[in-house]
Design goal:
The complex is a heterodimer. Helix content of chain A is 64%, strand content 5%. Chain A is mostly helical. Chain A has two domains: 141 residues, no CATH class; 223 residues, MetI-like fold (Orthogonal Bundle). The two termini of chain A are 54 Å apart. In chain B, 37% of the residues lie in helices and 25% in strands. The longest helix of chain B is centred in the middle third of the chain and has 14 residues. In chain B, helix 5 crosses helix 7. Chain B has a domain of 182 residues: Rossmann fold (3-Layer(aba) Sandwich), CATH 3.40.50.300. In chain B, the strands form two sheets. A six-stranded mixed beta sheet of chain B has the order 6-7-8-3-9-10, with helices on both faces. Chain B has a four-stranded antiparallel beta sheet with strand order 2-1-4-5, with helices on one face. Chain B is globular and about 55 Å long. Classes of the chains: A mainly alpha, B alpha/beta. Chains A and B meet through helix 15 and helix 16 of A and helix 3, strand 6, helix 4 and helix 7 of B.
Chain lengths: 448, 265
């Protein structure tokens, strides 16, 4: 029996046993559901793999190895004239402090009875971060009365030692490494056992500034975070009012003619323009023509504003369009002016959509790297946290994604770990913004 | 030919609220209203009937210039309310709409509280000097909308939470809150069940005491029940206009008769 004869209208078929055509349609539907579930499954799998690898690779950046070293602050070395004059003490550079710290570590090892072939002070250099001396010097200059005492410092361990504790540096690699020897690793093991060397939570990764290539252990994302914050402020302050005003005008007031059609097409196209194009535009217009400072969050914010505007305008127009026209009629019908009908009735109803669109636009801008490359917001930024805040919008700065990019391209694997750590922080920010979007949506949504 | 009944009716100037002469409406290339003349009297319910797409709603929307919101719509001819041409350049449509209230086909309360729905019009027109005065306007309007007893205990509840018939009466209360002189109703009962329809119709009869009411309706029974004057539109033409009783019992035009007896439309 063929399908056609079985399904001829009016032919006697039972409703209890579905015919072949119905069965085929049901099978097709079942297959489609399987495809859909598979697609979602694959998507979720990728998400899990992505989040998993980010967490595994990046969590290490939030921990750092520190060495507790008792340092004898020798007045003979640090204050040669003995008159405690700060200006004169400042003349002793970090080179004057290094031997004291290294001696301190050597003495500590000896005191603990650790056997090590490393007998010379200089050999301790590989154990400690190059930033250690600066930390001790800052302390002494702030507290000159401590001269002559032995003070215990919690100093950053060298990046190789840190890597050894985190499993990044293996013993087999050390043979080819001129920065550290197997003896240092032995000493590290003993010091860890004695509690002198320990891994702890590293707040300065979140608050600190970038560091030079040789001191991965010191680098933090804090300054770049500030840069991103200033940029987001510029983007929010400019793109929200401009975007919303433009969309309200285009959607509610502008006559529908060839010009507004042209503008509409152009806005849609702008949303698809590669971000690097906005970067080169920013370079040409803001820096070369308007002579705004290079690498400044203000310029970055302006470029990202240009990039975010189409997103905000498109989503705002969509949410204005979705407000039922009967509400506009109702407002006009009781004698409200066009503007009153828009601002009293249409805009409040479109608000959840506008806010969501704005926050999505901001999140997109927060993660944007390419345009920042062109306006010089990528690079080693030495500004320390308190210095850069006063003129935050005009001082050179970086941004979180640019900082991550910068770290990822550096040779030291310690920076690789920090790049992943930076990604975790960036994702936390994006997640926070999305949660804010959802909360605002809930808050403003009105039920019909 | 359809001028004849107009000439027969001796309408004194004082009674005429709205007078339309030679009104033509184009939507782009479509000629929606063709040369319509009509005189709408004060304190009367005038019904516009006719098949779908005959232009009765379009004509209604000309009376408070709601068609201005449609870009492609062009209105020609003259519409006078109390002798003033409402399409004069000096007329602000916003002021006009305060004077000519409108109730729409689908109940469209604002997604605000019942109180705010009614108070919105008086607020934007500055009709109340104090909260007490506003409260008074809201109460009177809701009473006129015959919905006060049902909502007086929940004025803070959202207007959108009411049933369809209640929503429509709320919309009528909202429309009368601005003290209009003319009330336009565009198929106000098409979304309502028979009981709600009966309530609204009763209300329309009540409103006739104070306002000139123009109602567009698909239901000929409704037109017969609520109106004193009826206008029959067909394909953009005003075919016949006259006393409701006469239109329904003794129409002059054969098209009117066909429509009323159910042969066209």
């Amino acid at each position: 029996m063929t399908d056609t004869s079985a399904n001829r209208p009016g032919s006697a078929t039972s409703l209890i046993t579905p015919d072949a055509r119905t069965k085929r349609r049901n099978r097709a539907e079942a297959r489609f559901k399987v495809y859909g579930i598979t697609a979602i499954g694959i998507g979720l799998l990728f998400l899990v793999v992505l989040l998993g690898s980010i967490t595994v690779n990046g969590l290490g950046a939030f921990q750092q190895t520190f060495v507790n070293v008792p340092v004898y602050l020798d007045p003979a070395k640090l204050d040669k004239r003995g008159n405690r004059n700060i200006e004169e003490m400042k003349k002793v550079s970090t080179f004057g402090y290094n031997p004291l710290i290294q001696q301190g570590l050597l003495d500590k090892a000896a005191e603990l009875g650790i056997e090590t072939p490393l007998k010379k002070r200089k050999q301790m250099k590989a154990m400690l971060s190059a930033s250690a001396a600066a930390k001790v010097r800052d302390f002494v200059l702030a507290n000159p009365e401590t001269l002559g005492q032995t003070v215990e410092f919690k100093l950053l361990a060298a990046s190789r030692v840190d890597g050894y504790l985190k499993g990044r540096v293996q013993r087999k690699d050390v043979a080819r490494d001129k920065n550290i020897d197997a003896e240092h690793l032995d000493l590290t093991d003993s010091l860890v056992a004695a509690g002198v060397v320990a891994k702890t939570f590293n707040l300065s990764f979140i608050t600190g500034a970038d560091a030079s290539e040789s001191r991965a252990e010191q680098a933090g994302i804090g300054v770049a975070m500030l840069g991103s914050f200033f940029m987001m402020l510029v983007v929010l302050v400019l793109s929200l009012p401009i975007g919303v005003a433009a969309s309200i005008y285009l959607e509610e007031f502008a006559p529908k003619n060839r010009w507004t059609d042209l503008i509409e097409v152009n806005i849609s196209n702008l949303a698809a323009v590669p971000s690097i194009v906005f970067g080169i535009l920013g370079l040409a217009v803001f820096i070369q023509v308007m002579h705004l400072p290079q690498s400044a969050p203000l310029v970055g914010g302006l470029v990202l504003t240009l990039m975010t505007l189409p997103t905000i305008i498109i989503s705002t127009r969509a949410s204005l369009k979705s407000v039922p026209p009967s509400i506009r009629d109702a407002a006009l019908g009781v004698g409200a002016s066009k503007m009153q009908s828009v601002f009293h009735h249409v805009l409040p109803l479109a608000m959840p959509g506008i806010l969501t669109g704005t926050i999505i636009g901001l999140a997109q801008a927060l993660g944007e790297t390419a345009p920042l490359l062109l306006i010089g917001m990528v690079g080693y930024i030495a500004t320390n946290v308190p210095d850069g805040i006063a003129a935050g919008f005009l001082d050179p700065n970086s941004a979180m994604p640019a900082q991550i990019y910068e770290w990822a391209k550096r040779a030291d694997p310690a920076y690789y770990e920090r790049a992943w750590g930076g990604i975790i922080i960036l994702l936390v920010f994006l997640l926070a913004m999305n949660i804010i979007a959802i909360l605002l949506r809930r808050r403003f949504e009105r039920r019909w | 030919m359809y001028d004849a009944p107009n000439m027969e009716r001796a309408v004194t100037a004082s009674q005429t609220k709205i007078s339309a002469q030679g009104v033509q409406v184009h939507y782009g290339d479509t000629h929606a209203i063709k040369d319509v003349d009509v005189q709408i009297e004060d304190k009367t319910v005038t019904a516009f009937i006719g098949p779908s797409g005959c232009g009765k709603s379009t004509f209604l929307r000309c009376l408070n210039r709601m068609n201005d919101t449609i870009d492609t719509c062009r209105v020609q001819g003259q519409i006078r309310i109390d002798g003033e041409d409402i399409y004069d350049k000096r007329v602000d449509p916003v002021q006009l709409r305060a004077k000519v209230g409108m109730v729409f086909q689908k109940p469209n309360p604002f997604p605000k509280s019942i109180y705010d729905n009614v108070a919105y019009g008086p607020r934007i027109h500055g009709l109340a000097a104090s909260k007490a005065e506003l409260d008074h306007i809201v109460e009177t309007s809701l009473r006129r909308g015959a919905i006060w007893d049902e909502v007086k205990d929940r004025l803070d509840a959202p207007g959108t939470g009411l049933s369809g018939g209640q929503q429509q009466r709320l919309c009528i209360a909202r429309a009368v809150a601005t003290e209009p002189e003319v009330l336009l109703m565009d198929e106000p009962c098409s979304a309502l069940d028979p009981i709600a329809t009966a309530q609204v119709e009763e209300l329309i009869d009540e409103l006739r005491k104070n306002y000139s009411v123009v109602i567009v309706t698909h239901s000929m029974q409704q037109a017969a029940r609520v109106s004193q004057k009826t206008a029959f539109f067909h394909l953009g033409n005003l075919v016949e206009f006259g006393d409701t009783g006469k239109i329904f019992t003794n129409p002059e035009d054969s098209r009117t008769e066909s429509y009323i007896t159910g042969r066209i439309g």
